[in-house]
Amino acid sequence: MTQSLEVYLLAIYGKLAPKTIEAARVVHNRTAGEVQNVTAARSLGDLSHMVYVPAGQPGPATGEFLILDQWNNLDGINQFFANHTVQEQAGEIFTERDPVVWKPADSLISYHFPAPAGKPDRLVGVVRGVVHSQAEALKTHNALVSASIGKARAAGNMSHEPYFRMAAPGSPQALEFFAVDVWFDAAGMAKHYADPEVMAGFMQMFSAPPMATVWKTPPGDWVEW
After folding, report:
1. Contact at 8 Å (CB) between 224 and 63?
2. How far is the C-alpha of 101 from the C-alpha of 38, rounded, in Å?
């Protein structure tokens, strides 16, 4: 008998309130990265907290910011963000934000590979869109991933994690899809995402063109865990 641990993804996309990445780093570390806040979040089930800015755009912040947190306790998420101080501090980081909790798409293929030696770069590709149905997405996604996994790995892909939006109890099955891919090779990633065979098949999953973005770790010493 096997047991699985359900780990949920909290993705917060938004626009930065500070005018530069450095100013955003200072505010983030003073609020979300403050020791008491980190301790409280971890005690409630926050296993990982990572921050990203758009890739390929050096210098001052473009205004876009992404936080990806992994939690193993849904009640813990609700309890932590119900705190008035946490909400006030989030307002210091973002002028606007879209927090969404995503549930692992257990029937869809996911994978994690180690990074080869001498490959320190990390880029994160994110896809978000609405599928025709979960059943159809399962068939299309798994066939495509199975056929392209070797090509993706050779291009520098380290992991692929698919999710569906967390649906409220008693509500219809969620159709919003979210996938996170981690890469160690920017050129390989760009080439793979431009592959018409891979992308044409992938687009069949969606009822409208999905939003695809690429992110990187911002410069400086950010509090992450």
Report:
1. no
2. 19
